[in-house]
Amino acid sequence: GQSLEQPSEVTAVEGAIVQINCTYQTSGFYGLSWYQQHDGGAPTFLSYNALDGLEETGRFSSFLSRSDSYGYLLLQELQMKDSASYFCAAPSGQGGKLIFGQGTELSVKP
Amino acid sequence: DGGITQSPKYLFRKEGQNVTLSCEQNLNHDAMYWYRQDPGQGLRLIYYSQIVNDFQKGDIAEGYSVSREKKESFPLTVTSAQKNPTAFYLCASSIRQPNQPQHFGDGTRLSIL
User: Fold this and answer.
1) For the segment A24-65, what is each residue's pLDDT rounded down to a tens digit?
2) I need a labelling partner for B55 at 20 to 30 A (CA). Which of A20, A31, B93, B95 fits?
């Protein structure tokens, strides 16, 4: 079957750097996406990695290693507003269907 | 502005009652999806549709039904057969390719009376 594993929660302080890991088992791998969801809100797309390496978007970066079936989301210069749940997701099949991980709840402390 | 609109924001269901959650998008996306999210959990796929007049079951379709008569609309009915319907329901849409981001509505929170 297909599955994505990520830690359930992570805590960090304001201004720090935090890394959220995701390991996956999927058939026909097409890439890894990351979504952010604030409590009670809609998930929003953060980044997508189709190839190995690092993709940088402002304070957020995402990394993929297809040989290790592993990726991570790196958040720098943490702010209180970054407190949210972060989900990794991978395509399933040829269409736009996604499989989501269980989510990592990030708490940013002052 | 383009986006996805879900309604209502909160919904209460009585025992034995069917309720329908609305999802409308004006992003011109072919693909639409319904997810269920329970507290502290990830998103589980209920149904998805890649094109008008066609839809497929996701991982937890039992007790739910959908229709896709128009490209813009993908309503979800929670039937009385769904014995544990209390959850946060999210609708999403995307371009019908594996590497395209999904765009989500603000969700409907369903509770049992």
Assistant:
1) 987 767 789 999 999 989 999 999 999 999 999 899 999 999
2) A31
- Rounded to the nearest angstrom, the minimum Cα separation between B42 and chain A is 4
A59-85 pLDDT per residue, tens: 999 999 999 999 999 999 999 999 999
Instruction: Select from A91, A93, A100 the Cβ nearest to the Cβ of B99.
Output: A91
> Which of residues B28 and A95 earns the better pLDDT score?
B28
- B58 to chain A: closest CA residue: A97
CB contact at 8 A, A12 and A20: no
B34 touching A (Cβ < 8 Å): no
Asked if omega into B8 is within 30° of 0 (cis), the reply is: yes
